[in-house]
Amino acid sequence: MPEIKKTPIPKDVAVLEEYMQKNVGLNKSFDLGVRKLKILRKNVHFYYINGLTDAGYIIELVEELVGINDNERLSTHLFDIVHNRLVHQSVEPVNTIEEAVDEVLSGLIAVVVEGYTEALIVDVRSYPGRQPMEPDTEKVVRGSRDGFVENIIINTALTRRRIRDPRLRFEIFRIGERSKTDISIAYIDDVANPSLIEVIKHELKAIKIDGLTMADKTVEEFLVKQGYNPYPLVRYTERADVAATHLLEGHVLIFVDTSPSVIITPTTYFHHLQHAEEYRQSPAVGTFVKWTRFLGLLASLFLLPLWYLFVLDPTLLPEGIGFIGPNEQTNIPIIAQLFIADIGVEMFRIAAIHTPTPLSTAMGLIAAVLIGQIAIDVGLFQPEVILYVAVASIGTFATPSYELSVANKMARLLLLVAVAFFHIPGLVIGCTLYILFIANIKSLNTPYLWPLIPFSPVAFIQILIRRSMPGAKIRPSIVQPRNKYKQPMKS
H or E segment at 264? Predict the structure, then answer.
């Protein structure tokens, strides 16, 4: 891209006002304003955006500057006097018009003094948005109820509140030629791997795009270059406690302004199966919850293909479980019933997202009674099809990561097709190809199936068993932390 020309701040404030009218929309855009003052016989202009700034702060600053006329004599150092009278903790000078415009459009104000080639940028942002609340997708029985919101400043503050370490770093970038979206990477300086930090910085700075209106998802696609691979290569969280935990493990987090989700890097397949509820209960209960979730994951992937294989070849079933059906014959092939029912459940899930909350109960009744039962009565579905699709769907809903659950559903449908065409060889070859596929995935050079492939016994035991916090002394080796011990080791 061609290098953007930098224009110095003009000494004549009228020239700057003309630039703002011609290039930024002053006097055309109703939300862009200028407040003109006369301080010690010189012009002082405030540029601001209505709706992004705190009017109370601006009024206080104006009152302070107007008071200069009553308390100061004519001076050749008006810029220094104004700088000193801006009663705010964040006041920074800039030298170019482009920098001043970017800051104004971000919600800060620019103070320009006649006769000087610098503008003073004051951070009086007050972005519209909601207050922190528990995210709908990561609810817990016990635990904090504050979650990330669409304001990057609030999100970093929620994280800083949990980790008051002077080595916690938040480095900020501005990405997007037109959107100029604020993006911050977070890490603990003496824990995170410096190579990982540099790779993420390099990838973020290499993003060349008009705007990041889809926020974190756009950043993810530039960062990991996922293509058409359905499996998620980064983890999202809206919980500040989950984000802080991963920082302490050595991960690098990416905060994107306007998004309530934080990107956790790097991640593996098993990161997407973790949930805060496991660590809000006792180790025994947490382990039970883990195993139940793993069972749901296996059911969501393999239950339907395995049952359909038994339908095609009932001789594979032991006599004791021959009752699993189907016990009736219909005119519609079983494979068609499975696809119709499975895709139908996905349609209901999509519809639930778009359905207003007061109507969601009515939609659930329609799904359960009118469609499910009546479809069986008229012979469209066999009861066993509805049963096993429902169990597989429960396993899908039990998967904490929405992205992973949808990817597993796609894999399940492909396994069904393989079984329909090739029976037992289809299931065996399909499962083998599935394992090989996800084993070859890498996220920022991190093996996706670690600690299973490559096998790490200690880490794999921690995946299966929720250890108590006093016993969890070592950070995960997959992030290659600089300091691998969570707790000081006894000498």
Answer: strand 262-265
